[in-house]
Design goal:
361 residues, alpha+beta, Rossmann fold, D-amino Acid Aminotransferase, Chain A, domain 1, Dna Ligase, domain 1, 3 domains, six-stranded antiparallel beta sheet, four-stranded mixed beta sheet, 12 helices, 17 strands, 34% helix, 26% strand
Length: 361
């Protein structure tokens, strides 16, 4: 039996590079090797594409520096006209072909539609939302606009662009305190600050502008942090909701990825049946509103009055050992191995439908 060959692409030119490596390791450890073979491709922080001879699998990465500094050996480039072929630089007539791509890339240049566009040009099936869903899901301002248009309740927010930002007095009047200052196109809590004073506000703005040219400033919402995983193409389904209980002041980068004890992940959130169904319904509605496909994780706040307010969507959710997306599907009866296979099947299903479309009159 010939196995389907998957390229697992990870790393990337992003502040979330190290998290991508942790996610890739878990995907490799759980892919169904009875059905699929795989090749590992790392994009380093320079944007170079490199082969990885299982280094991501064989390293423990005990320190965060270990994640950023290891480099595979061989550079890759594409074969024009043969999009599924990767050529190893410096070795004549040597390379490999793949049948599909599993992009395990978080943040800009990996989750925002850029690599999705490249893979479409190369004619390769790939896991996760396409160009449009990825792009609008990544930009927190555009995402909020679409949610509002779809009558999905969002929190109050302001926008800052190109080093121009509202005064602290305007923020305090419009949104109250505290507020959260975030890069618009970043995830994993990178560059996010919780702000209660004018000095904190200035420092938070400076920090966030290091990661993006556009920021969102969000009002604080008192409520439980609940997440739903969504899986599917035309007829997506939502998992059982899970709850994040952060030991830190808020669910920051460390809590999400580096410290197993910095937060508690309650994969079976104690919610009423009505609230559970409402969360699942809104998660699917949000997924469809942004025209997502394949997978996404949708994050909510549930207030003490059981009001459901959407926070954001994550179109390539984490696949680390403590990430909620695979944990929620496990709680819903889908193993990690089955989940990866389902995601690949969804990628092939979309690709086949797209291939039927006419390209000439």
């Amino acid at each position: 039996m010939t196995k389907t060959k998957i390229a697992i692409i990870y790393g990337g030119k992003s502040a979330e590079h190290e998290i991508s490596i942790r996610s890739a390791k878990n995907v490799v450890q759980n892919i169904d090797t009875g059905r699929y073979s795989y090749v590992l491709i790392k994009i380093n922080k320079k944007g170079e594409w490199l082969t990885d001879k299982n280094m991501v699998l064989n390293n423990s990465f005990a320190k965060i520096d270990d994640l950023a500094n290891f480099e595979p050996e061989d550079s890759l480039y594409f074969n024009p006209g043969q999009g599924n072929q990767f050529i190893i630089a410096g070795i004549e007539n040597h390379g490999f072909s793949v049948d599909a791509v599993f992009p395990v890339l978080h943040g800009p240049n990996g989750e925002d539609g850029t690599i999705q566009g490249l893979l479409k040009l190369l004619g390769l099936p790939f896991v996760g939302p396409g160009v449009l869903g990825s792009a609008v899901g990544m930009d927190k301002e555009i995402m909020k606009r679409i949610f509002k248009e779809a009558n999905i309740k969002i929190g109050e927010y302001l926008v800052a662009k190109n080093d121009n930002y509202p005064s602290f007095e305007k923020v305090k009047t419009k949104l109250g305190l505290p507020v959260y200052v975030k890069p618009a196109n970043m995830g994993s809590s990178v560059g996010i600050s919780k702000v209660s004073t004018g000095q904190e506000y200035i420092e938070a703005i400076k920090l966030a502008f290091q990661f993006d040219r556009k920021l969102v400033i969000e009002a604080n919402i008192e409520g439980r942090e609940i997440e739903c995983a969504v899986l599917g193409n035309e007829n997506p389904e939502a998992s059982q909701p899970g709850e994040i209980i952060a030991v830190q002041d808020f669910y920051d980068y460390k809590s999400k990825y580096l410290d197993d004890n910095a937060s508690e992940l309650v994969v079976n959130a104690m919610l009423s049946e009505h609230t559970t169904k409402e969360l699942q319904s809104i998660a699917v509605k949000a997924f469809k509103a942004l025209e997502c496909e394949g997978m996404s994780r949708v994050d909510f706040f549930v207030t003490k009055d059981n009001e459901v307010i959407i926070n954001e969507i994550n179109t390539i959710p984490g696949f680390t050992s403590i990430s909620m997306y695979p944990k929620l599907w496990l709680e819903s009866g889908v193993s990690y191995k089955e989940l990866i296979s389902k995601l690949l099947e969804l990628a092939f299903d979309r690709f086949k439908k797209e291939q039927r479309l006419k390209t000439s009159i």
